[in-house]
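Example with several molecule types.
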Amino acid sequence: DAGVIQSPRHEVTEMGQEVTLRCKPISGHDYLFWYRQTMMRGLELLIYFNNNVPIDDSGMPEDRFSAKMPNASFSTLKIQPSEPRDSAVYFCASSYLTDTQYFGPGTRLTVL
Amino acid sequence: AQRVTQPEKLLSVFKGAPVELKCNYSYSGSPELFWYVQYSRQRLQLLLRHISRESIKGFTADLNKGETSFHLKKPFAQEEDSAMYYCALRRGSTLGRLYFGRGTQLTVWP
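Resulting structure tokens for the full complex:
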């Protein structure tokens, strides 16, 4: 298994543009998590899903952020419109039941 | 509410010296505690969890409920231990979700 897959690995965009980050969890996992990592705030949970249903989105910064999980093998995190303060590394992780979370390689987002 | 505190953002030691990365938590119930590690250019990965009571790569961590701490220790640090370390907590009532501390960047000098 290739593990959790994220794309793109790097994204550079201009302020105001829409950004879509993608995640493919490990097959058979029923939990999917989106995190944001910054120097100032460390690792923050944005939202997580269980069996494709959003369980807790209280970490989503504001309405500009949205996440979907249309099926068990795919999730997206969208930022529209993007702002420079959104620049961060975004991680996706998946787990089976309450077992270990496996993280993807991350997407490094830079908003100019 | 729950909270995980890692008081040191940066920690430097010399090779062969003992190292302790501090983690304190606040939670009124019985938590599960974890240490995750992120080596340079690698994915964040689980290092150890308190319920396993095991030693991984020479690291150990003991849950001290009286002091609400879960410090990570290694008696002799190695250069390859240089990484970002995150302490995390899971509540029994919220399946799946982890609460992370802000992380400690450990540098082991030769």
